[in-house]
Batch of 3 targets.
Target 1
Amino acid sequence: MHKSYDYAHPGVDPAAVPRRRLYTGATMPAIGLGTFGSDHVTAEEVAGAVKGAAACGYRHFDCASVYGNEAEIGASFEAILHSGIDREDLWITSKLWNDKHGEEDVIASCRRSLADLRLDYLDLYLVHWPFPNFHPPGCDVSSRSPDARPYIHENYMKTWRKMEQLVDMGLVRHIGTSNMTIPKLELVLRDARIRPAVNEMELHPHFQQPELFQFVLDNGIQPVGYCPIGSPGRPERDRTPDDTTPTEDPVIVEIAQRHRIHPAVVCIKWAVQRGQIPIPFSIHHFRANLEGVVADPLTSEEMREIAALDRNCRLIKGQVFLWKEGQAWEALWDLDGTITLP
Ligand SMILES: NC(=O)c1ccc[n+]([C@@H]2O[C@H](COP(=O)([O-])OP(=O)(O)OC[C@H]3O[C@@H](n4cnc5c(N)ncnc54)[C@H](OP(=O)(O)O)[C@@H]3O)[C@@H](O)[C@H]2O)c1
């Protein structure tokens, strides 16, 4: 059982939380709550955090079918909506998982998420990865889907046409991409009837992706930043010895001490002030993260200091999506500016 909450009197006034404007004219809160339990936080705990976060003033929630907790989170949304919060005041994202890229699967998958989340529509539906390669929850880094394939634009567009149909049907208000690269996005922008409104991508002080970040902004796409704290609880399959930890960076630690906040909150403040939309996961610290974006901004000098910390350190490398034996994870990310050939 979760605690009972007073949603009508949130700790942080949702109207004080900055918003980002999408090309449709709609706006979304500039911070959301992530809901991936990283294979070790239970669905019930995450669903409890969703309620607690709504009571704190969060109105944006980043969900996905593969997180395995949409049914539990749906019960939380139902309670939140019954408490008097309007559906229009929430921003709810979900994502199409990699084994559902087939033309016959997209609409059914979205309907499944809607039913689990107990909603009539989603504000945003993303194609979670540009590869149709399934891996089971809890798998290790060497797991490969036997029929794994590279990015094939023609196939991606077949999936995208169904995503567009979801907008036509009124089941989703916006569609977007995730884990994309500039060359892949260029093709999607060329061929889409309904353009992506958002690209969800890894963004934290040690992985700032300046080129992709600028590219999406220049194309009217909002950057949503995942792992904004450097994902200290991420699954084992997403850890390598070279990974760095932004919250242990001496510059971040010093700024945190100056502001008397946790280094994680510095990462969140920096993200919002830079212009991306962080979606920190938290079951214990969500209040501090939201409070951090409405008070005591970082100075321009502090923003410059953090901009200089980029180490191009990608944490979520995606090895499980590789399609050939012996491939390095870099093949997924088109590092030379062209889409990696099959
Ligand atoms: N599109 C994609 O492919 C993709 C990939 C990865 C993630 N995501 C999304 O992005 C979300 C965030 O990424 P993530 O969960 O990997 O990592 P993250 O948000 O960078 O880190 C979450 C961790 O940070 C801790 N934390 C949060 N706020 C804190 C604070 N103020 N002080 C100290 N610790 C704090 C949390 O602990 P507590 O729980 O104890 O507070 C949790 O262990 C996911 O939940 C998911 O919704 C999307």
Note: Strands lie at 19-21, 27-29, 33-34, 60-62, 91-96, 124-127, 175-178, 198-202, 222-226, 277-278.
Target 2
Amino acid sequence: MLPNVSAIDDLVTEFARLPGIGRKTALRLTYHLLKQPADRSQRLARALVDLTERVRPCARCYNLAEGSLCPICADPRRDSAVICAVEEAADIAAIERAGEFRGTYHVLGGRLAPLDGVAAEDLTVDALASRVQGGGVSEVIVATNPSVEGEATALYVQQQLRPLGVRVTRIARGLPMGGDLEYADGGTIAQALAARRDMT
Ligand SMILES: [Zn+2]
């Protein structure tokens, strides 16, 4: 009788779906886990279940949160008058690593990309406008990536916020065009934030 290896196939398939992991690495990881004590794999499985059950978008800024608010929105020392709008929650981690920004964030949930089927209504720009309308916001820094889609998204955000009378700034082009905020070093991010300009 042939051994039933569908459990192995299933895990290899799931690993191979992750970014940067090919089928070969997926196999290697799976066989590595098989050689480990069972409780290690069980801990990994539990961590994955916890991730899906506990992590939710922040009710205010759409950053990742375990409660209703993310740690940044819940921190009274952060300046809620300044909102930095980013494409993805991973960009927040990059800006936080730079350690200069003391304001709050808003995760747009991507960038305008009509060819990939991402339209304005798929982003959280309306929620951002609501936050501005709620009062107490003096500036929105648009920190979308320096790509064609990122620039188009920045322009769209500015157009939506302009009627609300809030100052809208764009991070400087210290970042390479086509680059990704998520992978930029802290110094570059700090510089791009410091040299931001008004969008007119
Ligand atoms: Zn938040």
Note: Strands lie at 56-57, 64-65, 79-86, 103-107, 139-142, 167-170, 197-198.
Target 3
Amino acid sequence: MSETLHIIGGGMAGSEAAWQAANMGVKVVIHEMRPKVETFAHRTGHLAEMVCSNSFRSDDDEQNAVGLLHWEMRAANGLIMAMADKHRLPAGGALAVDRDPFAESVTAALTAHPNISVEYDEITDLPEDGHWIIATGPLTSAGLGAAIQAETGADALAFFDAIAPIIYAESINMDVAWLQSRYDKGDTDEERKAYLNCPMTQAQYEAFIDALLTADKTEFHEGETAGYFDGCLPIEVMAERGRETLRFGPMKPVGLTNAHAPDDKPYAVVQLRRDNALGTLYNIVGFQTKMKYGAQTEVLRMIPGLEDASFARLGGIHRNTFINSPTLLDNQMRLKSKPHIRFAGQITGVEGYVESAAMGLLSGRLAAAEILGQPIETAPANSAMGALVHHITGGAEAKTFQPMNVNFGLFHPVEGLKGGRRGRKDRYKAYTDRAKADWQAWLAAQS
Ligand SMILES: Cc1cc2nc3c(=O)[nH]c(=O)nc-3n(C[C@H](O)[C@H](O)[C@H](O)COP(=O)(O)OP(=O)(O)OC[C@H]3O[C@@H](n4cnc5c(N)ncnc54)[C@H](O)[C@@H]3O)c2cc1C
């Protein structure tokens, strides 16, 4: 059996995975299909090309989860962060990057590494043996997508994400909202209270529909509309089809009694469903949307109980290939049915350049350690890296699994700290302090 690590896809995740494994002394081959085979979003043949915005988002490692992920990757000698820092552009608290020099220097560093070679070819089959990481991203080529689907089953591979907004539980006003499953269905008290309900009067419903109809929306790209129009229409499209459509769809008020005012029959109800095992995040059921981000927060805060909602992620509909990691991967990011194959990057159901690179960093280290015969534990649960990998490989609801950004809702609470908005600053500082200590200990155990 070959002791070389093969990585399919030289994007954010594949590049970082290669760097980490090569620095641990493992020979790596990156298989990248560009420039021979192109995608609709990439423009160049460089590795680690940023396909859209040039931002790595917040660089605040004390108060922001993505800033913390930056910190952890820097501490682990991450290539993506080193090159992002080198080609940083002024952008206030955000880390904006000069995209072409960034991608050129990632490519140069990888091709100059004595343990790394790059083969420019498209891989279309799942390898039968060896050590592999699949990091082919949201635009995985059709051939490989079909091979993954054949292995995992059609339901376990998505080609679009239709994301409903996700809200921090602590920001929902429980004096207005209440917990109840429709018709009190369920065998346990927990199941009978599995949903959080926000009631609307007729006037509130009409105003909400007006706001949906006039909100700024993102246009669909060519070919984007296939696949999701049947099952998961954006709410604004439903509203366009008729003012009552939502009231007979995801906002139907039946089978629910307002716990705060049992005699008031709501005209419509918005339901939220628990999004993680910790119960810190809730998604709005059936509320996939193409509203622009600014419009989205404005419109969704019109929902009674969500006036002060903080969003862990906003909704969207995109071309995006990703697997159902909670059912398919173990916590070492290995495909359970073919453990010689790991997955990394956006295809695992994380979202964004930084999160994808982070999952590359982790999978590269895990794979190299296994090849070297010194397997290591996956990232500690209280680090940003660990919070993310534990979410995708188990913490998330498999049935409703959708791509996720890193956010503090994925972290185990720190005991003894004040909840709510007022305690947020201290809480986030406590999360990031704890994460840094655990991450450093994990790194130190490998050196
Ligand atoms: C249109 C679009 C816009 C986006 N905008 C943003 C944004 O603004 N900000 C953000 O943070 N994220 C954005 N994303 C998400 C972004 O793609 C990811 O954050 C990040 O690039 C994912 O990293 P990755 O390594 O998983 O995939 P990628 O960076 O896409 O890398 C995957 C690589 O695999 C290669 N590949 C695919 N199939 C094969 C194959 N069969 N054989 C060999 N090579 C293959 C591809 O050519 C590519 O180089 C966007 C995605 C899309 C599709």
Note: Residues 8-14, 31-34, 39, 41-42, 51-53, 122-123, 135-141, 144, 319, 345-347, 352-353, 356 surround flavin-adenine dinucleotide (CB under 6 Å).
